[in-house]
């Protein structure tokens, strides 16, 4: 911003959806370089047709701002902090000039086109103060990637294969195109500190990696996807595409830990309220009355009581005959492994929302059967239990008397879903179903 009359700005957006504001923090970083009228090589003013890509240089900032808005609208149970540096880039720093950055390192400048890299580098170093579980960044600071990446896909730089797997899963749902470009560690330190002379696709992210302490980092470049052409991507309109916004939303959704059973029960009840399905919610007293010691034991470490959803749909002539039973459990939260009782890492928490899959699947099937008005009688049983390893939780080796009178010895929190399902299946025998799914 040295050559501009307007001072630089730094936007700090905060969304607190988690219980503890300091835990499970996700950092979004997106830069906006407002204007750059000159090229880096021969310092000539850009032609009118060369200025077309200039609105896309704001894509990093607008993308992360839109993602933040979407996360707040979805009310995800996660803590999010979005850092957006805004600077107007008019030639002021001379080629060969040296700059002392925020971390104390000295960088020699060799071109104006690398301004986005300097802005991102200091934003990354500032984000280290918050100790995030993952950092997601978006920018359009490397035009040479358009030449090396011939496909209309957003390059994604990351060190970890686990994060690359998350990207691939997110892309399946979002429909965006993303290609991973690995970061090589064997690069000369001197080459990483010289900006502008070596504008290859790998030297740029390696330079940024020097300023971020977390290995859980994914950087998206938007130069190759900032504009869409319906000849190449007929499902997108022409001009600015906004990608990879949908992929980032899906990625953060995967990192979001699930809510408690009360929230899930309310969501299921709300969805089914518009269908011909009767919903009955049963609590801890009902479980004690029926002797569901397995369900009560799994929920013993939680402050939230276990819940039991009983859904009924009567499409047949006789409400009792030809009854189909659906059973799907939801184990809401288990932050610790069963073997060594260590806290799960961020990439291991990705499968946690899937632990609700049994409950959400049978609830969706029940709604579909009701909307189709099939001539069948259906009853859906959904136990909802929060599984947390606290001092009053079941300990390995402890014995539990289940609903049918059998004695089971407990050896780990990872088998809690089996106990919950076992007692729910035993309870379903009371309805004499023709089939149980």
Automatic annotation (TrEMBL):
| Keyword list, A-Z | Aminopeptidase, Hydrolase, Protease
Annotated signal sequence range: none
- Domain Cytosol aminopeptidase, by residue range, is 1-249, 262-436
Do you know which SUPFAM superfamilies this protein is assigned to?
Answer: Zn-dependent exopeptidases (SSF53187)
> Keyword ATP-binding on this protein?
no
What's a single GO CC term here? cytoplasm
- Provide the GO biological process annotations: proteolysis
GO MF term list: manganese ion binding; metalloaminopeptidase activity
Q: Mind telling me which InterPro entries this protein's record contains?
A: Leucine_aapep/pepB, Peptidase_M17_C
- PANTHER family assigned: CYTOSOL AMINOPEPTIDASE, LEUCINE AMINOPEPTIDASE-RELATED
**Family named by the database record:** Belongs to the peptidase M17 family.
Name this polypeptide is given: Cytosol aminopeptidase domain-containing protein
């Amino acid at each position: 911003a040295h050559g501009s009359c307007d001072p630089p700005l730094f936007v700090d957006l905060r969304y607190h959806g988690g219980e503890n504001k300091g835990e499970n923090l996700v950092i979004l970083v997106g830069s906006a370089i407002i204007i750059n009228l000159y090229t880096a090589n021969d310092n000539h003013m850009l032609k009118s047709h060369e200025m077309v890509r200039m609105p896309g240089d704001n894509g990093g900032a607008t993308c992360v701002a839109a993602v933040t808005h979407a996360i707040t609208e979805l009310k995800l149970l996660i803590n999010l902090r979005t850092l957006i540096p805004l600077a107007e880039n008019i030639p002021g720093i001379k080629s060969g000039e040296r700059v002392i950055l925020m971390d104390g390192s000295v960088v020699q400048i060799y071109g104006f086109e690398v301004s986005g890299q300097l802005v991102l580098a200091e934003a990354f170093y500032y984000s280290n103060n918050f100790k995030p579980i993952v950092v997601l960044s978006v920018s359009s600071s490397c035009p040479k990637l358009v030449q090396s990446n011939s496909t209309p896909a957003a390059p994604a730089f990351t060190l970890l294969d686990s994060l690359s797997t998350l990207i691939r899963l997110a892309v399946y749902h979002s429909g965006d195109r993303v290609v991973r470009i690995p970061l090589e560690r064997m690069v000369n330190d001197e080459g990483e500190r010289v900006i502008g002379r070596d504008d290859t696709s790998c030297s740029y992210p390696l330079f940024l990696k020097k300023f971020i302490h977390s290995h859980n980092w994914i950087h998206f470049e938007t130069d190759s996807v900032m504009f869409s052409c319906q000849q190449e991507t007929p499902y997108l309109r022409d001009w600015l595409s906004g990608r990879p916004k949908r992929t980032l939303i899906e990625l953060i959704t995967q990192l979001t830990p699930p809510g408690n059973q009360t929230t899930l029960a309310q969501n299921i009840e709300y969805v089914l309220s518009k269908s011909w399905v009767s919903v009955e919610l049963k609590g801890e007293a009902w479980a004690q009355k029926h002797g569901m010691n397995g369900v009560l034991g799994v929920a013993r470490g939680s402050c939230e009581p276990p819940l039991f959803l009983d859904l009924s749909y009567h499409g047949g002539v006789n409400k009792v005959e030809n009854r189909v039973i659906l059973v799907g459990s939801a184990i809401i939260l288990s932050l610790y492994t069963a073997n060594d009782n260590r806290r799960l890492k961020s990439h291991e928490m990705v499968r946690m929302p899937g632990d609700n899959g049994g409950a959400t699947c049978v609830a969706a099937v029940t709604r579909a059967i009701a909307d189709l008005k099939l001539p069948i009688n259906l009853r859906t049983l959904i136990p909802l239990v929060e599984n947390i390893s606290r001092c009053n939780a079941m300990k390995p080796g402890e014995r539990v008397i289940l609903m049918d009178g059998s004695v089971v010895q407990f050896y780990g929190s990872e088998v809690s879903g089996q106990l919950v399902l076992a007692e729910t299946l035993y309870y379903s025998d009371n309805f004499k179903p023709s089939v149980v799914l």
